[in-house]
């Protein structure tokens, strides 16, 4: 809870996230993919996340208090949308409404303490250890759908150093892990920090969640008609 309150009360911060996640195949085999992210948050209503996937695809997502913009540099496309509210509201909108991946989004919200109080029903202290050269407390916790471990830096700044999530109700119980480094709670924010530069020649597209889809019955009917031509 000290970690949750520390992060939830921070006015601004930046952090690097190196993560990996399992993709469970039909055979049951797990294949791991990875991602690098640099995240900057300035409360109440500024957010920037630059990411590079293991296949080299680079993207950036920015919320400037009025608009969301996401750019995919590999495919030279971008999408924008009006957005009101704060960082907490925007992260929920990213994940729930726009169906965008945003690993460990809850750690970036000011309501992290309340979320943990509501969801976590068991916590165990594992050990005091050393991770990435940082003395840390290893904690294991459980929710209804996810078991997680977090290594929390010892001292006056109890930030998370490593997080492991196990999706225990999903086939194969896949895991997500994240190494968090270079925490900065007084980041240098300049005018361009929360500005997106659209690459020359990039095409504007809609977010996938905004594209209307036909009801399943209509899609089947349409496919059947096409098959008879």
From TrEMBL:
It comes from the Bacteria. Pfam families: DUF2092 (PF09865). The keyword Signal applies. The keyword Signal applies. Keywords: Signal. This is DUF2092 domain-containing protein. It comes from Paraburkholderia franconis.
């Amino acid at each position: 809870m000290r970690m949750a309150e520390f992060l939830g009360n921070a006015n601004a911060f930046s952090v690097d996230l190196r993560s990996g996640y399992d993709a469970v195949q039909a055979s049951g085999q797990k294949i791991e993919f990875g991602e690098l992210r640099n995240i900057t948050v300035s409360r109440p209503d500024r957010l920037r996340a630059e990411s590079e996937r293991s296949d080299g695809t680079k993207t950036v997502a920015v919320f400037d208090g009025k608009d969301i913009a996401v750019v995919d540099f590999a495919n030279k496309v971008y999408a924008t949308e009006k957005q009101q509210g704060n960082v907490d509201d925007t992260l929920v909108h990213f994940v729930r409404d726009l169906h965008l991946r945003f690993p460990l989004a809850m750690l970036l919200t000011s309501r992290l303490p309340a979320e943990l109080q509501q969801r976590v029903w068991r916590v165990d202290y594992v050990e005091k250890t050393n991770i990435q050269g940082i003395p840390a407390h290893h904690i294991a916790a459980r929710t209804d759908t996810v078991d997680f471990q977090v290594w929390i830096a010892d001292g006056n700044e109890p930030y998370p150093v490593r997080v492991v999530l196990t999706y225990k109700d999903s086939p194969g119980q896949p895991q997500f892990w994240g190494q968090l480094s270079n925490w900065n709670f007084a980041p240098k924010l300049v005018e361009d920090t929360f500005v997106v530069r659209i690459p020359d020649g990039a095409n504007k597209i809609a977010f996938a969640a905004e594209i209307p889809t036909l009801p399943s019955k209509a899609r089947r009917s349409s496919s059947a008609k096409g098959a008879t031509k």
